[in-house]
Design brief:
The chain is α/β, with parallel strands linked by helices. It has 14 helices and 19 strands. The longest helix has 21 residues.
Amino acid sequence: MSTRIKRKEALLGVVPIGKFVFSHEDALKQKKKIFGKLDQWKVKYTAIEDVLPDGMVRDQKHVEAVAEDMKKKKVDALFIPHCNFGTEGAAAMIAKKVGVPVLLWAPRDEAPLQDGSRLRDSLCGMFATSKVLHKLKVPFTYLENCRIEEDMFKRGLLDFVRSATVVKALKTMKLAQIGVRIDFFWTTIINESELLDKFGIEILPVDIYDFIVKVKARAEKSKMAYGKELPGIRKWLKIEGLSSDQPLINTLALRDELKDLADSEGLDAISIKSFTSIQDALEGGCGLAYSQISDDFPIIEESDIHGAVTSVLLEAAAHNGLPSFFPDITIRHPENDNAVLLWHASAPLSLKHPESDIKMAPPWILKGLPAVSLHFRLMDGPLTLARFDGDDGRYRLGCGEGRTVTGPHTNEFYAWMEVDDWPHWEKTLMQGPYIHHSSVVYDHCADVLEEACKYIPGLDIERLEKNRS
């Protein structure tokens, strides 16, 4: 995992809010405790200590200076903690002017003092601010009023940062498309201009002939170095159907050419025409390259641009930093009515089940191709499945959570996923605009994706779970 590209982490702008009618000293105390937690959790943030003398908004006169500072620092989200009550007009106007995802929260108020007075009415202040946010049509995320030390605060804040990271990932996304769409894959027809206009997604076209020429030139130039790498690979990979080392040398060159392309162009993912041009030209082994590079960034086969978009969003939402995998949704479990087979396409080697062998062999459904596919079982754990898709200018992000279960052995990479109500999932997916391709990550992060869609105009969320639809 050491080579994994750094994700586009959201920069959080922290704008503490106070009000003159309650204790300013206690508000500053709460602000200090909040910053301590952000530092402890290693949140990437900036504040307004250099804008206002006490680093806290307490007057509507502060709006312009704070908003300009947040825009100058290019924050991706705003956190507006109400430290004693809240200057609601200022808080909402800053949020409106900055125009990024907003988190509204306040520390839970203590009991009144012995004389009946109170240092803070933070909950009350949030009610006021939420009304003005509604009035100004500013979408926001509300985190339940709780104590700074409670896990609810940590979980809610970090989930919000991940939602903001999803929004940033979409707005700044750059993908490469190597080769044109496979002619009979009508399911992967997309509107490139619309993706750029609606979401800012940039697609770099890469001519597949030129790309293959570069791969072959790299293979020839680095043949000796790749030859030295092969004995180590053979220690963990069983290879069937290759009569020489050349296909393996070619696939290592393919791996490195993909990595260089991503680095030089600042790519978030690559979509590739996965058959048969590359296999014919390189004589096999491509699956090894895809599985190795997928530990660095998503490689999406079968020319599926919408699949690439989904994988980038899903990895931005995940808590644990693990890579996604990109399977087909194929057959139902023979015994479990709520389970389905996730199979084939591309998966990182790091997600292999610890008890599974791994081999490279010809694909069993595409007769005549050389040894291009990796065969292994995926590891166990919680899963989130998602699919970004759309037609006629309307886009949806379908997502839902499940977990792996045991099931029969099959060829190529696979996992069996159990969900709450598969017939409901099947009906929802079938009625579209989705296809059989999906992006999956080992985590439960559908709530993060759902919250992110609140801040993405033109993208609707659709939960796949029966009790969340």
